[in-house]
Write a structure and sequence with these properties.
With 200 residues, the chain is mostly beta strands. It is 0% helix and 41% strand.
């Protein structure tokens, strides 16, 4: 699977990547805020790795960004940070992480743990930045006993993780929406934020 671009009418398309290895798949592409660069996930089905790559919008300058496996990357609105999902051996779970746009300084934002699997979720994924960059919405997978997705919002600094809806898929924000401040769990319930999951 390769990466392509097309105009808004769908009449002109351009192939950006050309995987010589048939086991590679390029997916989950996101434009940088300046529109010049595209960030995407490349899966190697043979090695079962998921790495992040950058390429210019004209198809030049292909560059590997990460040396670790990760999923569903996306730029912050100012283009300085990238949010993504990543498995790590310490928690033995998938969590939401942040790193600089050059791939440096990866840091875990959520703290889902496999050891809590019978009472807590074991996966946090599909992060999506609020338009002002102050918060992220993401999907938290609840394992036993409900086995369902749950939409959450968390502040950019990792504080105040707050549930939004008890079911849903990958989130998105309305254009120009600004989230209500996400408070700590001991505070009063926050106003309903703006992200919504697409209906099936």
């Amino acid at each position: 699977m390769d990466l392509w671009t097309m105009n808004l009418t769908g009449t002109i398309s351009k192939r950006l990547t050309n995987n010589e290895v048939s086991t590679d798949s390029d997916r989950y592409s996101r434009f940088a805020p300046d529109g010049r660069t595209i960030l995407f996930e490349r899966r190697d089905w043979t090695a079962n790795t998921f790495t992040f790559w950058l390429i210019s919008a004209d198809g030049s300058g292909l560059k590997r960004l990460s040396q670790f496996s990760g999923y569903t990357p996306c730029f912050s609105p100012d283009g300085k940070k990238i949010a993504f999902a990543r498995w790590d051996d310490q928690s033995r779970a998938i969590n939401v992480w942040l790193m600089n746009s050059d791939g440096s300084n990866p840091q875990r934002l959520t703290h889902v743990s496999q050891s809590d699997r019978h009472s807590q979720p074991i996966q946090a994924s599909s992060p999506c930045w609020s338009p002002d960059g102050s918060a992220l919405a993401f999907v938290r997978y609840i394992s036993y006993p409900s086995y369902q997705d749950q939409l959450f919002v968390i502040n950019f600094n990792g504080s105040g993780m707050t549930p939004v809806v008890a079911a849903g898929g990958p989130p998105s924000w309305s254009i120009g929406s600004v989230p209500a401040p996400v408070r700590a769990k001991t505070a009063a319930p926050p106003a309903a934020p703006s992200p919504s999951a697409p209906s099936s």
